[in-house]
Design brief:
The protein is an alpha+beta fold. It folds into 2 domains: 107 residues, SH3 type barrels, CATH 2.30.30; 296 residues, Fumarylacetoacetase-like, C-terminal domain (Fumarylacetoacetate hydrolase, domain 2). Helix content is 21%, strand content 26%. It is built from 11 helices and 26 strands. Strands 6, 7, 8, 13, 14, 16, 17 and 22 form an 8-stranded mixed β-sheet that branches. A hairpin with a 7-residue loop joins β10 and β11. α8 packs across α10. The longest helix is centred in the N-terminal third of the chain and has 16 residues. The structure holds calcium ion.
């Protein structure tokens, strides 16, 4: 077995995937790596051992994470991937790849890139409809703007955290029946199973079109759990939208799957029954839907399979929307799709929907029932997409455990 792919590839992490991450081998500093099977390959070391990578791209990978590569732009991304695919599939280079790599279970993973600006969308029609039915039962499930633009809000970039980092239950003001809120730990801690997109290149004047977004700015995708405190969110969100109910933690998976690896996963998005403005027209060059299936696992038990292909709005549309007003785009900009929910109950991506606002407890395989998350519970997202020729693209996992709230510093009485 002379090629690295033959020696190391595993289902989901073959030469058709090659996701990027930042890792430290034992006793050494962080570096940019790529994953093949169960190996984390040090890209700088590999580019020294095997010639053929252009100088500009070599400079962009001689760093601890993806930041410099995201800045270098799409030509460097393409050049690096071409070289990598060649290296791991070329006869006689298995030893070089082995020497530059480490078993993934022996390395420490870090945030793969520095998040610049973070935006959270609301792109799943089933999710938006479910929330509408619960919050506004007397009205149409979707608000009038929903099919004319991808609804979103700006979040806190600094609170996007790496998979595996646990965090305490957030505290805040919770609505109470009497009218006055009470301060304390969230009683309705939830998940949001989303897909996240990592952007690169620069567009300081914004106005990035759909085609340009896909060709030049969407670097890759990760699993994204946008943890949400529904009670804090419910009290604070009028009139300006979500804030502290969302910003305590949002976890991302640690191996960024290149957009180029998702070619075989591209599918038509759902039929749009409302005409959109020209800047959101994504009918050319597509299809831009992505056939990624996520899995939500609670304390080791699988409870849901949110289908990303059902998202009404596609990633290039979301990039076009965030820049159409002239807002610049920077390397490291990141956005979440919004909770992914399919039409079926076991395709819902939040406990808010799975338990229908807490009214219909979810029955776990071990016989326990639950609505929202308790202390000590662990939620893991997994995700896969079809690769070329029957292969699979694996997104790895995005996981964290809820720690008990820190002691309250203050409180206000409940109700008058
Ligand atoms: Ca969200």
């Amino acid at each position: 077995m002379n090629t690295a792919a033959e020696r190391f590839a595993s289902p989901g992490f073959g030469p058709e995937n090659l996701p990027y991450g930042s890792f430290s081998p034992k006793g050494a500093g962080p570096r940019l790596g790529v994953r093949l099977g169960g190996r984390a390959i040090d890209l700088q070391a590999l580019s020294t051992a095997v010639e053929g990578l252009d100088g500009e791209t070599r400079l962009a990978i001689d760093t601890p994470n993806l930041d410099a590569l995201l800045t270098a732009g799409h030509q460097s991304w393409a050049s690096l991937r071409r070289w990598l695919v060649d290296v791991v599939t070329r006869e006689g280079l298995g030893d070089e790849v082995e020497a530059a790599s480490f078993p993934v279970e022996q390395v420490e993973m870090h945030m793969p890139f520095t998040v610049a600006d973070y935006v959270d969308y609301y792109a799943s029609e089933h999710h938006a409809s479910n929330i509408g039915k619960m919050f506004r039962p007397d009205q149409a499930p979707l608000l009038p703007n929903w099919k004319h633009l991808p609804v979103g809000y700006h979040g806190r970039a600094g609170t996007v955290i790496p998979s595996g980092r646990n965090f305490p239950r957030p505290k805040g003001l919770r609505p109470e029946p009497g009218g006055n809120p009470s301060f304390g730990p969230s009683r309705r801690l939830d998940i949001e199973a989303e897909i996240g997109f990592v952007l690169g290149g620069s567009a300081p004047a914004g106005e990035v079109g759909v085609a340009q977004a896909a060709a030049e700015h969407i670097f890759g995708a990760v699993l994204f759990n946008d943890w949400s405190a529904r009670d804090i969110q419910n009290y604070e969100y009028v009139p300006l939208g979500p804030y502290l109910g969302k910003s305590f933690a949002s976890s991302i998976s640690l191996w960024v799957v290149p957009f180029e690896a998702l070619g075989a996963a591209r599918v038509d998005p759902p039929v749009r029954d409302v005409a959109v403005a020209g800047y959101l027209d994504d009918s050319a060059g597509g299809p831009w839907g992505l056939d990624i299936t996520m899995e939500v696992i609670v304390d080791g038990q699988s409870i849901s399979h949110p289908p990303v292909r059902t998202l009404y709005w596609t990633a290039p549309q979301m990039v076009a929307h965030m820049t159409v007003n002239g807002a610049g785009l920077r390397p490291g900009d990141f956005f979440g799709s919004g909770t992914v929910s399919g039409p079926e109950k076991n395709q819902r991506g939040s406990f808010m929907e799975l338990s229908w606002g807490g009214k219909e407890p979810v029955l776990l395989a071990d016989g326990k029932q639950m609505t929202f998350l308790g202390d000590g519970q662990t939620v893991t997202l997994r995700g896969t997409a079809p690769g070329p020729d029957g292969t699979i693209i694996d997104f790895g996992e995005c996981t964290a455990t809820i720690l008990p709230a820190t002691p309250a510093a203050d409180s206000v009485p409940a109700g008058p």
